[in-house]
Amino acid sequence: MIAALVLVSIYAVLATIAGILIFKHPSASQSTELDYKNLIQKKTCALYFDVNGFLRSDIDSSNNDHAIKGLHKNQNIKDYNGRIKDLGNYFNMCIKYKRTITYKSEEIKSGNIVKRTDLIFSPFIVYGEMKGVSIISQIMYSSSREADLIAKARKLTEKNVVAQTQIDKLDAERIELETAFKKSSQHHIKLQKALYRIEIQKQELEKALSIINTQKEDLERMNSEITRNNHMKDVFLANTSHEIRTPLNAIIGFTNLLLKMEPDEKQLKYLENIKNAGNNLLFIINDILDLSKIEAGKIELEKIRFDIRDLVDKCVNTVSVKRDNKEITINIDIADDVPEFVTGDPHRINQILTNLLYNSVKFTNADCRINLSISTISYDNGRINLAFSVTDNGIGIPKEKLSDIFMSFTQANEDTTRKYGGTGLGLSITKQLVEMYGGKIEVESELNHGATFKFNLILGEADEKPDTKQPIGSSELSTDAPLHILLVEDNSINQQLAIDTLKSWNKNAIIDIADNGQIAVDKVVSTLYDVVLMDIQMPVMDGNSATEAIRHIDSANGKVPIIAMTAHALEEERNRCLNNGMNDYIAKPFDPDELFAKISKYAGLKTDHLKKNITRNTAGKSDDDSFDISPLIDVCSDDYNEVMNVINVYANYVPADIKELSKAIASSNAEQIRMKLHSLKTAFSYMSISAADELTKAISDSLERGQDCGKLIEELAAAWNSTLPKIQEHVKRLL
């Protein structure tokens, strides 16, 4: 039943993601920029084909800028599918349905000018019989609608001011003439004519002023419509995010629970694939939301003191864990004049570096070598300008595509998404985040010769070391302490997931269910809970309304800690929850450790799990000091299931690397020896296997002296084989 649920949810998620991409793709049928009422230039040409696709008439093919050009009388429509994508498909649709088909081949904005190219396929029918198809290609140029609106509004305002000034001036002249008329009757006729002329001019100016005001109102109404459309887009993205996160919460959550049930090797592989797929989908929807927030100007960069070297180390450690049969080597070069602490938004800077490093890993082959360097450009009034460089030995980028890779939903080649995956949003988000820091990002690359991304960030200087956060919780209660929780959730699948997750953490927890906000309010009136987990979008009464009602309960029950647990992941929703009286917020799909930590904080618990996190540096050490997996625990962010997954990966690759090292030594392949030694040292460093560390160093020394190291390699294999079961057993105890 769970497997069926997972498959149905994944198909629903993929369908929703596809809808988002069509909504955002620049080749969508509706035009967002071209103004048909204000075309600057329009070029057309027409070709006539018979029903078999052969050109019979070239009405005007002299225009070299046109989408269809250089055709000959006997050429077939199929010859041009390569130049104009899906040309043959649209031609066949026109014949099949005997209807006019329009295909927008491109729409490009350059400055304030929008260029759009359309192909119009029209059937030629005589007495009900299809004779052929005419293809009309038209290129239209117009100024940007938004720029025109702003320019017109500015010009109309200027005209309004000029007209009003003229009216005031004419009124003053009329008064002067009336005064002169009274004083001198001999100029009566002349003055009457002048007054009449002035009155006519005044009426014309008032009419012009009325037209200007009407046009101004039209522009304001159009601007209001644009604002409303942007709001509708935000609502759409928010609802789409909610609808995607809700099934993802079940997919990832139940997968985590199944991973703890000691599945067999085949089941473990399937579950890991499901979890990875779910995390990839979550990564995609987060990218789309980030891009939307950046474009709407809703992202604010935090100013936090942080250790930039520590941030780089954690980022590199996360990326450099061996994956997809790749040997990943990341060299870090941070100049001495780069300060230890800076001020900025560590989350966004980590996002920039992670995007670029993952990009390099994705587009390299088995031997992935990356160089990350940071240096100081300048200091100025408490600000420091840092230069970053990420260089790889990957597949490279064609020169003609370098200007396109930072565009949203764009990758270097059409088959890149199919071959390597991704949405084409990572580099676009990276570029905009860099620019928010006053920096600029550039890329240098050649096909098959790797790529180098260079950018700079302007950060604040920080003289003081940031305060270390204290662990959550202070009481001596354990995870088995009685705990009464109210779960407010209308989705039965999410109810089961939350109950099973909480019970896996605290078997003595009592969990009551409320299917909507009104039931939750009624239960809180009669029962004092330790904590309430509140969904937001529910029937009868939503989570925000329920929280407001609970806060008006005139007893201690009304002060119960309330944690929002919702698939609405936008910052506005988080702020709304907190402003309505909730104590905290967690987004679905939720991280179990984060959920346990928040419950512990507000219920006054100090759980065994949190104790394990607090003593991470000792939890990873073996009793006999033969290994210490603390670095690996740190890289996996205390996710012991992920720690076990990584160790299982090493269980397969380390023995193979030892054999390859032995072969490389026998064949005197220096480069292969270097690669395999580096790979083994990386694996052993994550687990601090003392015997293996000493043996790899001894092998390196022996090779430098030209000595035989066959026995050392045998000892290295024996040390690994004897230590691996201890490590696996140790992690099982931590789970």
In brief, what are we looking at here?
This protein is an alpha/beta fold and 735 residues long.
Q: What overall geometry do the principal axes of the alpha carbons give?
A: extended
- The assigned CATH architecture of the largest domain is 2-Layer Sandwich
Give the helix tally. Answer: 21
Specify the structural class. alpha/beta
Mean of residue pLDDT? Answer: 76
Q: Assign a percent range to the helix content.
A: 40-55%
Overall CATH class of the largest domain: Alpha Beta
Low-confidence stretches: 1-31, 60-67, 69-73, 414-421, 466-478, 606-617
The major β-sheet equals: 7 strands, mixed
Strand content: 15-25%
Number of structurally distinct domains: 6
Q: In the CATH hierarchy, what is the superfamily of the largest domain?
A: Histidine kinase-like ATPase, C-terminal domain
Q: What is the fold named in CATH at topology level of the largest domain?
A: Heat Shock Protein 90
Word description of this protein:
The protein is of the alpha/beta class. It folds into 6 domains: 71 residues, no CATH class; 106 residues, Beta-Lactamase, CATH 3.30.450.20; 82 residues, Helix Hairpins (Orthogonal Bundle); 158 residues, Histidine kinase-like ATPase, C-terminal domain (Heat Shock Protein 90), CATH 3.30.565; 129 residues, 3-Layer(aba) Sandwich (Rossmann fold), CATH 3.40.50; 105 residues, Four Helix Bundle (Hemerythrin (Met), subunit A), CATH 1.20.120. It has 21 helices and 17 strands. Helix 6 runs parallel beside helix 7 and helix 19 runs antiparallel to helix 20.
